[in-house]
Structures are given as C-alpha cells and as structure tokens.
Protein 1
Amino acid sequence: MCVLLLTGCEGPYSTLHAAGPAARTTALLWWCMALFATSVLIGVIVVWSLALKREAMDERSARRVARRLIIGGGILLPSLSILVLLAFGIPLGHSMLPIFASEREVLHIEVTARQWQWDVYYPAQNLRLSNELHIPSGEPVLIHLRARDVVHAFWVPRLAGKLDAIPGHTTTLKLEADEPGLYHGQCAEFCGLQHARMYFTVEAHEVADFAAWLQAQERP
Amino acid sequence: MTMSRSEQAAAALRQHLEEVWYNPRGWRAFSVVNHSVLGLRSLLTGTCFFIVGGLLAMLMRTQLALPEQELVDAQRYNQAFTMHGTVMMFLFALPALSGLAMYLIPKMIGARDLLFPRLSAFGYYCYLFGGLILLSTLLWGNAPAAGWFMYTPLSDARYSPDAGADFWLIGITFVEISAISTAVELVVSILRSRAPGMTLRDMPIFCWYILAMALMILFGFPPLILGSLLLELERAAGFVFFAVEGGGDPLLWQHLFWLFGHPEVYILFLPAAGIVSTLIPVFAQRPLIGYSWIVFSIILIGFISFGLWVHHMFTVGIPHLAQAFFSIASMLIAIPTGIQLFAWLATLWAGKVVWRLPMLWIFGFLVIFVCGGLTGVMLALVPFDWQVHDTHFVVAHMHYVLVGGMLFPLIAGLYFWLPHLSGRMPSPLLSRWAFWLTFGGFNLTFLLMHLTGLLGMPRRIYTYPADVGWDELNLLSSIGGFVMALGIAMLIVDIALHFRFGRPAGRNPWNAATLEWAQSMPPPAYNHVSLPVITTRHPLWNHPGLAEEMSEACHGLNDRSGIRETYGTNAVTAEAQERMHLPSNSWLPLGTAFVIALTCCALLASLYWVALLTAVGALLLLLRWSWINGAHPDYSPAALDATAYPPVHWRTRSGPGLWGTATALLADGALYLSLIFGWLYLWTVAPQWSAPRSSPLSLAPLLISGVFLGAASLWYWRGVQGLRQGRGEHWAQRCLLTAGLGLLHVLALLYTAAQAELQPTFSSHDSVLFVLIAYLVLHSGLAVIATLLQARRAQLNYVNARQPYEPEVVLLLWKYALASFWTALAAFVLLPLAWSVP
C-alpha cells in the first residue's frame, strides 16, 4: 500500500519524492499532518451525521453537551493540535535556515533570475552558467538569489522549499542533495508571459567528481 | 364583509405606506433607493459576474486538461486567470453577500429601510459601472494579465505596458467605493436603527456577523485603495513607490495588498457563517447554543484576521522571528472558527433536525469548509508552506475555503430565503441533482489538486510538460470542472424556473424565529406595517401572533406622517430616541456614479483635462446631494414640529449623517495609517531609499498653517458648543470666519508644498510627501467647502438652535482635518528630524 502510494508520488518535480534533507523533512511533516487532518475531518463528519439523527434534549442536558463540545472540540482540540504542530514544526523549519551551527567552508552560488531564464554565477570560481547549477552531493550549498526585473522564485521541489527572488533584495537558500543525480527546478512566482517555461536543472556530483568538474570549467 | 374600525385603520395605513414608499417601475426604476430592490439587484448582478468568472475557469480547465496544449496562447491564459480571480473576488463574492445583507438586515432588525438609501443606490451603481469597465477589457482584448494580486514590478508600467493593469486599478477602486458605502450603511443601520428593545444581546446572530464584516471592510479595504492609487500614480505619472530605483520596494505592494487580502477572505467567510448560524437553529428547531461564544468568536476573528497577512509572504525572505509570529497567529484563528463549528454541532445534537434542502447545502459546507480549514492550518506551518506556496495545493485550499465556506452557505441561504422573496418553493428533484453534481464535481476537481500541487505543479502556468506526473490528475480535475459547471447551471435554472412553477410556500414555511418572516410574501417596500418593541431573541417563537399584530398596525410608527421614516434607537440600550427621516427616490445616485464612471474612462483614455472636468462635476453633484439631503422645510416639515416624540432626527444632535460620517472617517483613517505605514516601511526597508538631511517641507510655514487650522477648528467648535446650549445667533458669520481661517490654512499648506520643490518622479521620499500634501489639502478643503455651505444654509434658516444637527457633522470634518494635519507633522517632518540628529 505504501509502495503503491509512493510510486504514485514520484515525478521529477515531486515534493513527496524527496532527495534532500529539507524536502524529506517537509514530506514527513506532510504525511503526519495529512493523517491527523483526515481523522479530524472524518470525525467531524461522523459526529455531525449522528447529530442529525438525534431527538431533542432538555435544556440542562443541552447546556452540558454544549459546554463539552465547545470547550473540548472548539478550544482544546485546536489548541493542542497547534501546540504539537508548532513543537515539531518550528525546530524543523529552523534546521532549514541558511545558517550553520559552526564555521564551515560552504560553496556559494549566485543566481539571478530574469524573464525568463536563470543566470548562474560561481563567484569563487568566476564561472557563469545558464539555467543549470552543479553542486556537490551530501553537502549544503548556499544560493544567493537576485532578480533582474520582476519577482521570481527559485524552486527545486525534490531538494528543498522555494525562495523568492525580489528586485533590490538578495535572499539566501540552503540547498542540499543526498545523492548524485539530476534534479529539476522551475520558477514558482508568476513572472509574465513565459513563466510556465522557466525551467532549470541542478546536477549533484560526488564530492570528488564535483571538484574535477569545477576544475574542468576553469580551464579556458 | 364589512371591516371593523381597526381593520379599516390598518388598511388605510398600508395604503398610505404604499404611497410613501412607492418604487416606480420602467425606466424610472433607476431612481429607486429601496434596500430590498438594491439588495436583489446586487445579487442578480453578482450572479451574472459569477457566470463570467465561471466561464473563464472553464477555459482554463479545458486548456489544462491535456499537457502541452495551447488552445489559448500564454497571454490570453494569463488574462483568463487574472480576470477569473478578480471577477470572482471583487465582482461576485462580496457584492452577492452584501446584497443579501442589504436585503435582510432591515427586515431582521425591525426597520423600514437602511439608514442611507441613496448611498446604497450610489454604491450599487459604482459597483455596476466599475465592473463593466473592468469587463470591457475582455472586449478590447487588453484584460489585465498580472494575476489578481497584481504583484509589482510585473504590474508596473515597464512590465505591463498595456492599459489592462490601469483598467484593473481604476475599475476595482471604483467598485471598492461600493464596498465602503455598503459597510458604512450596515454598521450605522445595525447600531442605530434596530427595533426598540432589541438590545445587542437580543439581536439575531446574523446581525453580529454582518456588523463584524462591515467593520472589517472599513479597515481592510483602504490599504488596497491606497496601494491601487499609488500604483496608478507610479504607472501614469512616474512616481516612485514600488520600483527599486528611486527608493521604492516591490514588497510594499505585497504588504498593502495582503493587509487587504487576508481580512478580505474573512469578510467573505463571516456573512456565510452568519447564514449557517441562522439556518441551523431553524432546522434543529431550537435556539442556537452558544450565542455568546459565537459573538466572542466573531469579535476574535475580526481582530486576529488583521494580524495574519504575512502568511501570504512566507517565501519572501523576511526575518524568521516575524514568520514564526504570523505562523502562530494563522493557526490560532482556527480556535474561534472551531468554537463556531462546535456550537453548531451542539445545536444540532441537542435539537431534533428536520431535513430540508438548505440543510443539504449546509452539509456540503461542513465537509468542504472543514477540509479547507485543515489544509489552511497546514499551510500556516512555515516549512510546509515553503514547498507548496504558489502551487496547485494552495489553489485547492483556497477553493475549498471559498467554495465551501462562502458559496455553499450562500446557496443554502438563497434556498432558505427564496420562499420569502417569491412565496414559492424550488423543485425538489432539480435542486437535489444540482447539489450532488456541484458537490461531486467540486471535490473531483479540487481534492486531487492537493496532490497535483504536492507533485510540483506551480500555479498560473498556461501549460505543463507531459509525463512529469501531472497528466491524469489534470484531466480528472478538468472533468470535475465540467460536472460542477453542470450542477451550477441546474441550480440557476431551478431558481429561475421556480418563480413560475414553484409550489406556493405559505407564510414562514420553515417556522423560523426572526422578524423578516413576519412580513407578507413577497415583502412590501416598507417591510413592516408597524414596528414592535422586542423583548426576546426569537420574537416569532416567543410571541405568537406578533406577525398579525404588526400587520394590523398595533405597534410603533403607525401614524400617517407622510415621510419615509424608521426608528432611531440607542446603540446599547435600544431605547427609541429619534424618528430617522429617510430620503426617497432620486436620480442623484445614478447621475453621480455615472459622472464618476466618465472620470474613470477619461483617465483610462489619458484625457486628463476631461477627467478633471468630470471630477469637478461629480463633486458638484455630491455637494448638491448633500444640500438637498439636509433639513429643509419642504423636505422635512416634521422637523419644525416641536411636539413629536420621538423627535425627528433634525431636532436632535445625533442622526444617521453623524454616525455615517464618523464611520466613513474610520475607513479614511485606515487609509491614512496605511500611508504612514508605507512611509515608515520604505524608510526602513527600501533598498535604495534616500532622504535629504532636512525635510523639504519647511517647518515655519507648516506651523503657521497648523495654527490657522487650529484656530478655524476651535472657533467652529466653540460655536457648536453654543448651539448645544441653545445659542445659535450669528451662526452664518461664525461659519464664514471658520471657512476663512481654513482657507488661509490651505493656502499656507500649498505654499509650503510649492516651496519644497518636490520631485516625486525621482524619489519615493518626495512621492510619499506629495501624496500626503494632497491628502491634507483635500480634507481641509472639504471641511472649508462644507462650512461655506453651512453658512449659506444658516442664512436660509435651515440650520439653527432648534435644528442643531448638521453643524455636529461638519465639526467631525474639522476634527479629522486637525488630527491628520498634526499627525502628519509628527510622522513626516518631526520624526525624520529626530532620527537624523546625530
């Protein structure tokens, strides 16, 4: 059943076919929330359907039932659910931030979005690419996003969440792929006529292979 | 059969009321100001726009049914989704709900009409003309294409060079006048014209929902009105607010838009929840359980909903502490929503439910809305939102809460009140088919869409690649769309046909408790023959025979006064205080709205001198309107009679106009606060903000201007105090002096502005100051003009110590001008001065 479900969730842009730590965390959050939400929805429908068939109650019993339902269902249920959700969600969200617990060497890539393509620049290596990124697998990299013209958004669903690129601002995204492979990205903020065709790719290499690849690019 | 004396008197009264409240037919119907007619017109017009929006959706779904399709090209598709969202949100959802509210509220609170009938008519025509202006873009082929939330820079002059965006900005702002006017109308009517004895605690729960909705409109719409004005100035005149070069910021648009956008969805949800809260007690055959809990929840939602807007901007890169705050707030709103849900459940549980057609739609609401609410809590979790923001998951969520939380209750309400309107019942077979097709089609379309979004399909794409996992899902969604369209078509046919073929319903077929069911069906223009004193929340349940008593003229306002009037009651104690004299049919609302429409068209055609001319024309029409709406021996003879009780409101100091002006000033203040927000935001965040070391507005002439304004206000205020104590001599001279001082204030202000040599096309700093000066001049100018008119009216003896009402209203204008001027000085001149001191 799970395998069936999971194969239906595959796809080059699928957030549920995660290939990076951020996407994996989010997919897990999704499944937990979906399970809980489905139970609540079914529960509410069942109670509502039962209520439709009941006989009238006297005023005192009615008030008692009402207090239980309103306080239990209307206040306690949402409050507790929210607390649990935030207790997990906030630390998990924090772990996706582009900050690191300790000083480390990280690859920086500058991506400038414009209608309707992605200009990629590796500042340390003075390397320019178009519509493609190359990163080492198993290690986080920092993407610095800018926009030349209108608002765009950089999104590689299988690896991590999206981040907007806004003219005049620079935003930073932490991206990491678990394994080598080719991952697909797209613009995720409506940016005009060809927004639907603003794709890019992220290719992750083994660390050693990546170093070799970088070297190969630097040769004139 | 001979009638008794009392029956003869009642019949004579009914005849008299028919004449006084007459609604003409044929082409003269355009001058009608009655709330029932205007409410129904809004509903009907909203339905027509709904059909347009629906057809656009069908176009989109047809294109997306298969991958790599281009039935329409990218530009047309982008126009289609922009117009679909805009039409549905601005031209269908709110007007339909406020139309229903306009129709029902006076009937429910035991009044004869809303308190500003001509304003209602004006609001309707603004909505109609604004909507037609926007729709005309579909004909010209230049519909806006930047999405219904029109993010900058995509929607600015450089990236959307054609006029579509201007049509959006100007057309929608025109429509928003209607929203604001309806809001003012509803707030004041609910607070001040309830039947005597109907305290806030005895008010039907629907009225609480509508009161909250109206207050939210007053605070929620102005940020968008300001934003639209600023964007249009940027597009047409080259001002700088959202462009980075010159010191603007695209994010300012997003903030202003969502400051409106988030409250907007609760503005749509609350009246629908009000319908649910009204229907459930009727079909459970018992009073609503948890009335106080629900009122508390409504108030909580009203406040919290203004603190959530950034959850639409989680991917923008704002600081994470701020994101956490908005995430928590967005989840917390589930609590008052849950309280209402469980109060409804408790009412059903404790009652004995009769299963009727409206309950079927309420059940549909339950399933769809709860599902939408749950996905909403998911979206409030920031890391999850980072994945599904701007994907079809959000499209699914949005349609679940809007269709489930707004459309289904609206339809339930339509079926519920249909027999009230037409005296007939709809078809059982057709209506059930309509429900199941709509419900089934909707879920087929949108349930799968959650998965489509999780599989990575973004929003607003005109086509998608094959074999990435989206093909079957999109096809099924499109099929669902057609099924739902069929269901909606059946619904419309059912309602249309029932007027002719429906089974007669009899009075109060559902055995409901609220006053609207006391009327004969279809209801007369004046609603109730006589107005009762209310002592209970369920008058028709606890006071059997009330309906007959009212139509036999046994209760209040049963004299033949010759004017349109209803009770004015104290907002808290509901004691009868005044007889509110209401204006009758007039061509002014249509004429004024039409001239404003001409102004909009002239602006869109870039004919700026024509626009200026028509704008002045509109102003003159408005002033004429205010002139003849005031006390006048011909229009308000009862005002001269000192013995009538309760007194006609011209003889008091607290009539509809005072409350209406104060309420409208709330919205005005919200606009002003948004401007101050914009100023502070750009100053702290805009990437290329630059401000000169000292403000271009020099302090000395500003202070002089402020002193003149203070003197004018003080002088006027002293005069009003004298009027309150019965001393009204030399009122005309007092007004003239006030106006003179006010004029000097305006001149000093203009001098300061001229001296400043502002360059709004170069910097956002100067652009904001320019808008500020224009705002202050407009408000002070309005106060001066109103005072000059007062002077003339005092000379004609329309205003004096026995009719002290109008000066109170004008005093409000001076107070507002004074407050906004000194706030401006503090926020725009002194604050920067203090900040730059080293």
Note: The two ends of chain B are 94 Å apart (CA to CA).
Protein 2
Amino acid sequence: MSTDTRTDTPTIVLVGHGMVGQRFLEALAERGLTATHRVVVLCEEPRPAYDRVALTSYFSGRTPEDLSMTDMRFIEDHGIELYTGDPAESIDRAAKQVTARSGRVFGYDTLVLATGSYPFVPPVPNKDAEGCFVYRTIEDLLAIEEYAKTRARTGAVVGGGLLGLEAAGALKGLGMDTHIVEFAPRLMPVQVDEGGGAALLRTIEGMGLSVHTGTGTQEIVTGAEGAVTGMKLSDGSELAVDMVVFSAGVRPRDQLARDCGLAVGERGGISVDERCRTVGDPHVFAIGECALAADGRVYGLVAPGYEQAETAAAAIAADEGEQLTFTGADLSTKLKLLGVDVASFGDAHGTAEDCLDVVYSDSRAGLYKKLVIGRDGTLLGGILVGDAETYGTLRALTGSVPPIAPESLVLPAGADSGAQLGPSALPDEAIICSCHNVSKGAIRGAVGEHRCTTVPEVKKCTKAGTGCGSCVKVLGQLVDAELEASGIEVDKGLCGCFAQTREELYEIVLALRITSYQDLLDRHGREDARGGDGCETCKPAVGSIIASLAPAIGASGYVLDGEQAALQDTNDHFLANLQKNGSYSVVPRIPGGEIAPEKLIVIGEIARDFGLYTKITGGQRIDMFGARVEQLPLIWARLVDAGFESGHAYGKALRTVKSCVGSTWCRYGVQDSVRMAIDLELRYRGLRSPHKLKSAVSGCARECAEAQSKDFGVIATSNGWNLYVGGNGGATPRHADLLAQDLSDAELVRLIDRFLMFYIRTADRLERTSTWLERIPGGLDHVRDVVVHDSLGICDELEQMMRAHVAHYRDEWAETIDDPEKLARFVSFVNAPDTPDPVVAFVPERDQIKPDLPLLSIGIRPSDTAADVLEGSAQR
Amino acid sequence: MTLALETTDLKVQLRLADGWFTACDLSALVPGRGVAALLPDGRQVALFRDRTGRLYAVGNRDPFTGAAVLSRGLTGTHQGRPFVASPLLKQRFDLISGQCLDDEAVRVAAYEVRASPHQSAPVRTT
Ligand code: SRM
Ligand SMILES: Cc1cc2nc3c(=O)[nH]c(=O)nc-3n(C[C@H](O)[C@H](O)[C@H](O)COP(=O)(O)OP(=O)(O)OC[C@H]3O[C@@H](n4cnc5c(N)ncnc54)[C@H](O)[C@@H]3O)c2cc1C
Ligand code: SF4
Ligand code: FES
C-alpha cells in the first residue's frame, strides 16, 4: 500500500471518469486550474471516458476506440494523473483522503464525485442467472455480443423506455428475435404520451419486434445448467428466451457518499446546492447522474451533467465574475431508435395550467406530432415521433410565441401549410445546442466576429453540434443564413457558369439524360453563361459526371469521344500526367502492386528505349517520366501489347488499391489481401468520381497496407473483412471510420459498390471522401444508414449503376491506339507532326534524366508580345 | 523541314510580319480545344476555336512556367471574353488580347487569325 506524498500543491480528486467527469476536467483546464492544482482521477472502468450516449453505435461498427472521448494528449499535457480500473473505495472526510481499490490513498483539498448511475434490476427471481445482462458500459456490450453470438437466438429486454429500445435495437441488430416487456401501458412512457406511444408501437412492431406493454416481469426461468431459458410475465404468459437485458431505469451511484455520511435524497442522489457543492461539506462536490440537484431532481441526461461540470469548475476556481449556478435543466431529447426519430422537448406532457395541444397524427405513416401551447400562444413543449426534422427549431423556440401559427409547424413538409420556419425566426437567446448550451447569438458571433464560414469551423469555435449531434441541421441553416445576412455570398454554385452544386448537376444529368455539356450549359447554366464556352472549373466536373453516368444516360464512356474530349483537363486529354516542362509521365496499372518479373522487364525496357526517368510511386507502382506527347502512343502500344492498362494516374478516378502480402506469405496474415486488392482494383478501375479514389487491403490488423488512410480501406479479420471509409493522407490526413465489420467477400464488394456510388452522387467537385464525410449532414451515421440500412431505398439503384460501370469498362489506352483520328492529336505541332517540342529537353541526374530547367526559366515574363522569348532556345 | 501542302478546303491562317501564314486545316481544331503550331522563326503559337467557330491565336508558351503548353489548356468565357487557362498552374489568358487575367503585368503574344480558302506559300522552318 502506498500513501500519497502530499505536496504543497492543492489537490483535486475526481472520482468517476465518465462523460461528465471528462467534461469537468476540460472545464478545469479551460480555467487554468490544472496548472495550479494537482489533479487525480480515479476511474473504475478499464478505459478512460467514452461516449456513453453513442454506446449503441458499437453495434453498427464503431469500435471502443472510436467511442473514446479522452484525448490522452490532453491528459498528459495537463499533468492529470489518471488511474483506470481503480475505483475509489472509501472516503475519509475528516482526514480529507480517498482510498482506492489498489490501496493507493490520495489526500484532497477538493473532492468531486462523478460516479454516474447503475442500471436498476428489478428484484425478480433468478435475475443474476447466466444470460442476464444490463446495458450501461462497453464491457456490458462486449458480454452481450459474445453471448448472443455463441449462445442465444431469442432475447428479451425488460423496459420499454429510451434505453430499453436502444438495447432492443442492438439485440435485433445481432440477429435475434427480440421481445420488449414494458410495465407501463406504452413505450417510452416518460417522453411520449399515449398518441406518440401508439405511433411508436406500430412502427416498432412493423420492424418485427414483439412488444408486450402493460405487463411486468415476474420471474426469470432457468434451465438445468442455470442459464436463462425463458421469463414469466405478470399477465400469466411465458416467453421462451435465451437471454435477458434489464433496462428498467437507472439509480444514482451514491453509496460512496452515503458511507462517508454525506446527505443523499430519499430516492437516492447526492444532495448538492446550486453550485454543485454537497450539502454539509464545502470541500466535496457531486456532478452528473449521481447528483441530486438543488431543484430536487436527478438528471439522467448528459447535457445537464455538462452544465453541472462547468458549474463545479467555476465554483472551485472561485471566479467571482463567473458565478455559475445549476438550478435545473431542459429534459429535451432527440433519438433515433431503431431508425425511428423520437423527440420530446419542454413541457411535453402539457402539465402547465390551461395549456392547449396541437396534434397531427398519421398512424399509417407512423407519424405523431404534438405541440403544447400556452393560453397566450407561447410554445411550451412538444413530442415528435416518426419525423423530428423540426426538433432543433422548435426546441429553440420553446418559451416564446412562434412567429407563425402552431398548426403549420406540425403539418408535414410538403403539406399545403405554406409556412416555413427557418432559424432566422429565433431570438438570439434561443439555445441551439443544448448539449453545450450554445445560443443562437453565440453562433452568430462565431460567423460575424470570428469569421467562421463553414459548419465545421463553427463547431470548433463554439463546440455546438459536437455532443449528441441533434442540432447540426439547424446549425447548418443558421450558419448559411448568417453568412448571407452579413453579405458573404453563400453562392453554392459550382462556378460562374452554374448556380447548381455538383450534386444538383449530377441529378439533372441523370434525370434528363443529358449527354452534352453545351446542352447542360445552355439549358441549366446561369443566364449570362448560356451560349458561352463555360470555364475550366465546370468543364472537367461535368465531363466527370457524364463519364460516371455514361451507361445510365447512354453517353460514350470513352473520355476522348466527341465533345467530351474538349471537357477534359490536359491530363485526361492526353491520358497522362503533365510535368513542369510540358512532358508527360506514364503510369500503367499494376493491380494490388503485384507484378510478375516479365512485366517488370517490359517496363524497364520501355523506359530504357525511350530514355524515361523511372520511379517507384507511393501507390505501389512505377511511374515513367519525361515522355513527349508524340511518344505517348508509341509507349502505350508496347505497354498494351505486354498486357498493361491505363493506371488512371491522370484522372479523378480510382488510383491504386495497395496491398500487403497477406496470408499467402506473411505469418500473421488471416486473409488473402493481395487477391482482394486485385479484385477491387479491377472492379473499380476507370470509375470517374468527384476526386481521386484510393484504397488498400491489409491482411491483418497490423495494417501494413495503411488501409485506414484510404478513401475505402479493407482490413482482414479472422471472420472476413472490416471496411473503413473516408481516410485521407495528403495535406489534411484523416483516419478512416469503420463502416462495417466481418464482411464476407460478397458483402464487402456490395457495400463498397454502394458507398462509392453514393459518394459519386452526392460529393462536391474535388471533394475527397474524407471531406465529404465531414461535410454531409449526419456524417458517417447518415452514410451508414443509406448504404448499410438502405434508409433512402436507393441501394438497388446504386448497385445497378456499379454493375453497369463494371460491364462497360474498356481500357482507354487500348481504345486510343486503335483510333487513328484520336492518335493524330498526340503531336507537339499540328503543322509539324514529326518535330518534337524543343522546350522539352533533359539533362542527366543520378544516372537518369531530369527536365532542363534553365531552358524553362528563360525570360519568365516577356515584357512585350513581339519578342517571344522562345526564339533563342527553339533555334538550338 | 518542309511542310506538306494542305489539301482541305478551309485553312487556319495567322498574320505574321510578312503576311498570312497557314497553320493547319480548320478541321484539325476541335471546338473548345487547342493545338500548337510551329512558326517559321521557331516560335510556337496556340490556336483555338470556340463553339461558334471563332478562331484565336496566342503565344503557346506559358510565361509562368516557361513550358510551351497553353494550347493544352481548357478554354472558357469570362464576362463575355474568351480565355484559356494554363494547364500547369491555371492562370487565365484572354484569347483576344493575350492579357493574363490573374496578373496585370503578364501578357502573351496575340495574333490575328482567319479561316481562309487560300493557300499561302509553303514556308520553311529550321
Ligand atoms: C507519383 C506520386 C509521387 C511519387 O513519386 O510517389 C504522386 C504524384 C502526384 N500527386 Fe500524389 N502522388 C503519389 C502518391 C500520393 C500519395 C500516397 C498514396 O497514394 O499512397 C498521397 C497521399 C494519400 C492520399 O491521397 O490520401 C498523395 C497525395 C496527393 C495530393 C493530396 C490529396 C489530398 O487529398 O490532400 C495531391 C493533390 C490533389 O490531388 O489535389 C496529389 C497530386 C499529385 C500530382 C497528380 C500533382 C500534379 O497534378 O502534378 C502528382 C503527379 C503525378 C504524376 O505526374 O505522375 N497527390 N499522392 C505518387 C503516385 C501514386 C500512384 O501510383 O498513383
Ligand atoms: C445506452 C445509453 C444511451 C444513452 N443515450 C442518451 C442520450 O441520447 N442523451 C442523453 O442525454 N443521455 C443519454 N444517456 C445517458 C448518459 O449516458 C448519461 O447521462 C451520462 O453518461 C452521465 O454521465 P456521468 O459522468 O454522470 O456518468 P457515467 O457516464 O455513467 O460515468 C460515471 C463513471 O464513474 C465510474 N464510477 C462509479 N463509481 C466509481 C468509483 N467509486 N470510483 C471510480 N469510478 C467510479 C463509473 O464506472 C463510470 O465510468 C444514455 C445512456 C446509455 C447507457
Ligand atoms: S498487414 Fe498483417 S498480413 Fe499484411 S503484411 Fe502486415 S503483418 Fe502481414
Ligand atoms: S444539442 Fe447535442 S450536440 Fe448540439
């Protein structure tokens, strides 16, 4: 046992490193307290704070690491001592000491309890049998998953509240027949009323879950080995189930406080005052779900906990200018449960005197919307089931008289309501992000004073939208409105020729089957651009859209055909990459980076015969530099002959699928990563997209192919493949996000098909998958909904388009060298086809060549038009 | 070398100090795309044709990089004026005046150009 050596530095001990605990540490750091204090954190769980609110997303592919909320650099930078897996066991308030399970003893000047809640398990017989679980921590989820995979086919969730429905969704996602047992007469009794419950019930039953409301759990039935085999309900019926998850509410974890004599509420919760100080001991604070706030309530949501964390930190800082108090909080919630939007806000149940309801309900569509309005027209609260689009706006309007009639706020969009309520109608004090307590005024300030021009910038500046994410939509509208108001034109148009975004042009081209750029410009371009020649921005962008959609709209998929040729950037036009002196580089495709010796020799011979500079690229293939335009067809004739195809190093298209050597050779490999890389490269070769696409396949978690830095990366697991998306190297590196796990070959390919086509359809010009994923509303979750769960019902279409691409693929270079008319373009001079461009000259370097740079630098800026500086050199 | 006599109907010609010079057949110019031609004195010119059939000719050398590549740039219309964007670093040049639209101090040569049924005398290059 070690006893803490007390230093002179005042010490803050935090017990519990959950969501609120972490927020408290950030609040300390922001106030400079980590510099003046020693900060010790006792964390019971084996891992530091993670996003419990998003716990269920584990089942849709987020790893425990993804869920983490703790940046270890933050912990280190602020000198915080964090002890994971070491809970506090007792508190000696007289000695001001905390003892941890490991035996460590810490003296404190200030103690902060943030111990959260524990799941309440009703005292039914056999509640602890094998196969019974709760749903609160990552460890709980891992245990549930393990059991469900190996031992269970049918499961029941006890509790039909918010968390119960999440748990039920998780069981369903694990492939189990799922029951929900709820004692109250409806689902989510706390948040929704009877009408909302009915809409919810229909939708959830429609998804194949069995719901039993108005009945309690009487007993868990076990088999011979003591494991769960069923449960008896209070209505006399019995369900045959292999596992049970209790989700019947939570209770504050106040035992530690009780044991040291701190005051707790009648129904639990550590009593605190408005500054989150415990009643009776000014050195001890309690925050988050374990606290009984000054208003007599225990809050089971994260936003009030965050507010308490700030309040406590301000009190400890004793900053007189910042007298924060916590006197109660908003219980608004918005959830996506099993794919159903459910939201409630303000006085959802209409408890205020004399209030009125406005209700819209469409049971067939599973829609229910209710607003609670005061006598004077003030919006008091409401419930939205099935469609919570307007949640952000309505929540922010709560407490004021809406500028338009309440009926029009609940009618479905598109119904003839006429009124549209944008965020511009909100007052400055309206709270847009309740997780971080950010008002509309603060967001306007971020745009106005801090010059943020995009949602990600505003998020960074204000923290708005970085909690539960439910406010991001309104945030986006507000930022746009604000930019517009401050005169910063938010012209989302592609360029000076088109007022549409790339995505809109894509839809136009697809819907109207437009195969000509001029047609598109003349019919859909900006008024003053019609009839003109367009510009260098929209030409390649439209050329790429037409190429992507070629099979669907009946255009030629060959980028040098007809008008298409005039749309291509010079690289695509010459099917090679332009270099600084006007020469080109040549990159043949080497799928997966695998190449036989004969082919290597061919590349060597060609490079030698044409005097090209060769280099191994970062993409596992070989680049040959210094080809003059008239040499390209000659080089390619030999490459095509040897079985090579275009590598599209020049196109906004699939580049390479890198591989590691994988299970064939590597002692660690668990799948044949080379074969998969080759399959993927051959499938997606030639696919034109908004920006280049890169991929990689690694044979095991050691990740030698760096798949997580790719637009789509694949990592082998012992059960199949994990698919990561949205990775990027380059200037702004981004680690890819896990989209789905343990896929079979066919599932993997199908998911990538959908993902790529969805990206191609909705991304902006020159927007890599990484920025696209960050930009689109809903981010990764939305993309997952669309491509994994088919929430938009477009997956068939996306797959169909990819099949068409694969079926229509032809090698551009093979086609070009077969076409004398196209070949005629590959000359330096139209009037002297055999004369090479004299500016393209080389000098030796390290046994190879490099551009003759002095030749280029002659007279960089000709002073007048008469004396073309080329003269001198051209005559050489 | 000697340039071969052209046989098609319309020729693209540009005016040099000593008269009209035939660069190529009109049919060699794809609307919206350029070609480069070599002048008798070794200079290079970039020739363009827009969608209405108008012809343009400017110096081929990109003054920002020194490479002779302007003929390989994308063309467009900016406030009613035709331009070409260098394929290297994307600066735009007015096709009528040769003026760089991104840098007032920079300009490339601009030539008078026509489509003509007449053949001019073959010219020798170096
Ligand atoms: C040849 C090569 C460098 C080398 O010698 O290794 C290369 C060369 C070029 N890269 Fe790259 N990149 C090459 C690998 C990479 C990699 C590494 C990789 O792919 O594993 C990256 C970072 C990974 C990534 O993209 O996420 C990379 C990030 C970039 C970027 C930044 C992209 C970004 O999203 O930030 C650009 C600029 C752009 O595309 O806008 C770029 C652009 C370019 C261009 C096309 C610039 C240009 O327009 O001239 C270079 C011309 C290539 C040519 O002439 O052939 N290159 N480039 C590599 C060719 C790989 C291949 O076989 O196709
Ligand atoms: C599945 C799920 C979904 C949810 N969804 C939402 C939602 O959509 N919106 C919302 O607002 N809220 C939601 N919540 C509730 C939200 O997660 C909690 O309100 C929030 O986590 C409370 O934070 P906390 O720090 O007070 O408690 P916790 O996050 O529970 O953290 C407390 C930590 O203290 C540790 N601890 C306890 N005793 C000790 C000890 N003696 N020594 C050391 N450590 C100790 C615990 O192990 C725990 O790690 C959800 C919760 C769950 C489980
Ligand atoms: S990723 Fe795994 S299988 Fe592939 S080379 Fe590295 S260690 Fe071997
Ligand atoms: S309301 Fe939760 S992130 Fe804004």
Note: The first strand of chain A starts at residue 11 and ends at 15.
